[in-house]
Amino acid sequence: MTSSTTFPLADPDLADRLAVRLALVEERLRDAVTNVDPLADDASRHLVNAGGKRLRPLLTLLAAELGDGSRREVVDAAVVVELTHLATLYHDDVMDSAPLRRGAPAAHEVWGNSVAILTGDLLFARASATVAGLGPDAVRIQAATFERLCLGQLHETVGPRPEDDRVAHYLQVLADKTASLIATSARFGAMFAGCRPDVVATVTGFGEKIGVAFQLADDVIDLTSNGDVTGKTPGTDLRERVPTMPALLLRARAAQEGSSDEDRHLVGLLDGDLSGDDDLAAAVAALRVHPVVEDTRARAVALAQAAVRELDPLPAGPVKDALISFADALVDRAA
């Protein structure tokens, strides 16, 4: 059971409050995925039981500390964002053919694609039922977030148009597919804690930027860490031809006049047959030591710093400090 935060907090009272509320969110999550149908129950519990960092509900609870974090609606909102996130994971793993998720077999590997997709839909339904109790504004925000999630996945799947800048296209995909829900997590926390509209806008902007930084850091981690750390097979995105920032930056370098033989050779390696584990491992090993990985890491750090600047209007104190630590922790994973 998740009972503590995933990054250190300097204020012990804040840490204790968040730990208690995270434990309550975890309990509510397990209740929300319970189903009388045995198959639906097993499939729905699969990713909840696999654990996870619970970053989105943590951000909801943390942003709520800028107001009255003890309100019941805050915990409900935290459950909504995590249910929504879990639902997207079921769908993403089918689309990416990912064999592992959080160190366990992906749901589609256990029950097949159709059951995995329908389980994701079921979790979206449970999230909708919970958010309906938070009022029409919450429903509207959730619907807009869901729309961005779908658009991000759609644009990733279809890819950029010939005239599009591929890096800019990818950053927009990350903004929609990842940052939109992280921004909503912070927004819901401040909103349901009774914060002023300007405070809600501040943490929403923070969440939007840190969400993109988070995914860029993940692009680095996917290449530089082993599967024991990520719970995923390293290089899965390369195998499935899913664009990542390091690969996009490499392709841009290789397309330039006077590009190096090394860059062009590595692009050829990525475009080759990566179905075999040895071939995939060789491609990952070659890319992980290329300068584009450090470039991606630097972009993540710069975005995290921009996210922290969004917090300037907030008063100094343990909550602001914790939000800054949250931003640092997301990108420090890629160090």
Automatic annotation (TrEMBL):
Annotated Pfam families: polyprenyl_synt
The protein's required cofactors: Mg(2+)
MF (Gene Ontology): heptaprenyl diphosphate synthase activity
Keywords for this protein: Magnesium, Metal-binding, Transferase
Enzyme Commission number(s): 2.5.1.30
Gene3D superfamilies per UniProt: Farnesyl Diphosphate Synthase
Entry keyword annotation includes tRNA-binding: no
Keyword field contains Metal-binding: yes
Membership in a protein family: Belongs to the FPP/GGPP synthase family.
Full protein name: Heptaprenyl diphosphate synthase
Organism this protein belongs to: Cellulomonas humilata
